[in-house]
Structures are given as C-alpha cells and as structure tokens.
Amino acid sequence: MDFAIRRDASNWFKHIRPDFSSPSGTVPARDFDAFYFCFMAGIKTMRKKEVGGSDTRVLVDNFPGPYKIRGRLLVGLFLSRELEYLGVVMSEKRAVNTAISKLVDPDAQNFLSDVGVREFNKYAHGGYDVLHLDWFNGVPYSLETFLRTFRRKIENADPGLAA
C-alpha cells in the first residue's frame, strides 16, 4: 500500500511547494513534504479522516529522499499516537503486541503493514482538515510564514480524539 495525499491538500500547498527543501527533480519528495505537514498536524491533534479513491493521489510506497533516514522515527511517532488513539495501555503487553502486529510489517520498506499505511494516511488526511479549517486562514503563499504559523500551532495544539 502507498502513501497518498488528498487532492485538495496537494492543491492547497501549490504556492509554497516550489520552496520545499527536497532536491530539485524529486517531485515525490516535494509532494511528500506536503503530506508530512498534514501528517504532523493529524498526529498532534489525533485527527483522522477516511479519504480514498479519486479524492487522493498516490505518492510513494516508501519514505522518499530526506525522509528515508527518518522513516523509523515517523513510524515510531505514528505507533505511539495510534496506540493512544486505540486506548491501548502500554503496561498491557499482549494488547500492545496485538495492536503493533496489525500496524507493522518488519519486511516492508516503510516498516508498515497495509493496515498501518492506511491508518498513517488517515492522520495525514485528517491533518489537512486541521491545517485548512482550524490553523490557517486561506492557502499559504509564503513558506516562511507557513512554517512560523505551523510551528506555533504544533507547539500549542491540544490533542483530541476526533475520528
């Protein structure tokens, strides 16, 4: 299963996408930058949303470019938040093992099972709603302004259980 971005999210970032730090010519990595911002907003606020089909665009099946070396960190962040979302208590080893075994595939390049990628994408899809509806007033036109606002919102966001 592949990481996928909502088409409306991809369009929302169109003015700042050229300024993303991914190397020139690595379009999937630049699109993954937008996906990353959505994912982080979704993870921080625990907002998930089911979106699929023609409303999404497939990006990549693995962490691209500069994300490759940080893939395990992102998966760890995802697992921590998803276990919290599921209400799994860390001291209950069997419940933790069961939940993680559904989300992780140690043989996959991105370390996630199909279920894990699906849930990972849900955080990105829900995170776009956070960016678009809650944190920003309109589309971003300047990467510098976007990053300052994004950082402030991430630091001050309260996680909630919104599915």
In brief, what are we looking at here?
With 163 residues, the chain is mostly helical. The chain has six helices and two strands.
Helix/strand class? mainly alpha
Unreliable sequence segments: none
Q: Could you state the oligomeric state of the chains shown?
A: single chain
Mean pLDDT: 90
Helix content: 40-55%
Judging from the principal axes of the Cα atoms, what is the shape? globular
Please provide a written account of the structure:
- The protein has helices at residues 7-12, 27-45, 71-86, 93-103, 114-135, 143-156; strands spanning 3-6, 56-60.
- With 163 residues, it is mostly helical.
- A two-stranded antiparallel ribbon has the order 1-2.
- The protein is globular, with a radius of gyration of 15 Å.
Topology:
Blueprint: E1 3-6, H1 7-12, H2 27-45, E2 56-60, H3 71-86, H4 93-103, H5 114-135, H6 143-156
Antiparallel strand pairs: 1-2
Helix pairs in contact: 2-5
Key descriptive features of the protein:
mainly alpha, two-stranded antiparallel ribbon, 2 strands, globular
